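ok new one. same drill as before - structure tokens go in, u give me an amino acid for every spot. 161 of them this time. try not to just spam alanines like last time pls lmao
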């Protein structure tokens, strides 16, 4: 069984808590409910090696047990999940942008109204996405210019205990 590890969570654990890549990987695998033996077999290390990596991770994360590690990993997975992107685009370009976003598998809702400094009609797009860079690229390709965009996501730094 090859486990799919959330690399983004591993990187955040390394960045925020100072875990090594192996400590972070073992922590995520344990948080997914894998046993020490399953982790050892998948990574090609001993069960005592898994125990050692988790003990080091618990010390660095200042937690007492694997359940607390799982709670932190779960909160990170939620915070690194989909983001809400709000983009303001010209009305005459909104249909092209919306069609392209839908074609690329992004969820999008539109509101149209007058606003901004010019008083021109604009479309405000609400996009739920896992990849805000891709959304920005699509919008800029379709509009031909940089557009105002606001991205809302829970900052992972706020998740530290």
């Amino acid at each position: 069984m090859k486990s799919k590890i959330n690399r983004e969570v591993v990187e955040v654990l390394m960045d925020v808590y100072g875990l090594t890549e192996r400590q972070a990987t073992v922590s995520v695998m344990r948080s997914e409910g894998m046993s020490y033996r399953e982790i050892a077999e998948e990574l090609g290390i001993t069960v005592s090696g898994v125990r050692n990596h988790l003990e080091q991770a618990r010390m660095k994360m200042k937690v007492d047990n694997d359940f607390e590690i799982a709670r932190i990993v779960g909160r990170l997975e939620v915070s690194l999940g989909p983001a809400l992107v709000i983009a303001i685009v010209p009305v005459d370009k909104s249909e092209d942008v919306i069609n392209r976003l839908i074609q690329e598998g992004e969820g999008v809702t539109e509101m149209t109204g007058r606003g901004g400094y010019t008083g021109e009609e604009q479309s405000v797009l609400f996009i739920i996405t896992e990849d805000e860079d891709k959304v920005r690229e699509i919008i800029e390709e379709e509009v031909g210019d940089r557009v105002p965009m606001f991205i809302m996501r829970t900052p992972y730094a706020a998740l530290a205990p």
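The domain at 83-152 is CATH 3.30.70.120 (Alpha-Beta Plaits). and btw The chain has a mean pLDDT of 85.
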